[in-house]
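The protein record quoted in full:
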Amino acid sequence: MINDYAFYEESEEYEQYLPDSYFEEAQAEIRDLYEENKDSVFYLRQLQVKFEKKYFHWVTNNALIGLLKIGYLKDYRIEQLSGTSTRYFVHRSNRYPKRAINELEKVIRSYSQDNITRGCGYRAEDLFCKALALRGFMPAGPKIKEYKGRRWTKTGHDLDFVFKRDRIEYGCEIKNTLGYIDKEELDIKIEMCAFFNIKPLFIMRYAPKPYIKLIYENGGFALLFETQIYELGQVELVEKIKEVIGLPVICTKGIPDGIIDRFEKWHKTKVKV
């Protein structure tokens, strides 16, 4: 069973009923990072991605809020044109973080531009469509709201693609973002696949185990590729992101065979002999 706290990724408060050892372990690792880098500045998403293989994004968020509450960390917020804000965390002994914040902020604003984020989404869709088609998974779409005579009208959502091979059909969602897919959107896309009587296929940079478990329980597959994909023309920006922030980003001409192998191997287990 998935705990309710799991879906409040950007909470301002940390939940006292988090598993003690897990929560304390996350706080200890964050402390270690800051003790080794007392003059460094980190922002929320950066730390969530940095620790994501060990801790859910919401656990890292809550651990940071806990360290903020006891005075171990200080935070600074920079308002964005979109109306959101970037939240930076610094060691309590760091008296002059503004220069480091400004350096990070320049890079964050560069990769957060609408044309850049849209380009990342389109690039991932193009590359995965090509890679899957080369393995015999034929795409239909994009933006599927109607399929085989049935039209989804419950919400305004659509499926990115439908792929078909060996008489098995997949409703596919491709997410090339640093953060997790929104839980409500995940639920809706799974429901849409059930409505169209097709299997859900979520291709995502990363996702927490409860999300992956939910996808599998509904007969689908979660294909993670871990490194955010940028357009080929963004090599300079990608190098800056890696140098200044250390995020997993790449400009690539194609999807590595090993990633598609994982899905194809699973698919073959579903083909009726």
In short: The first strand starts at residue 41 and ends at 43. The two ends are 34 Å apart (CA to CA).
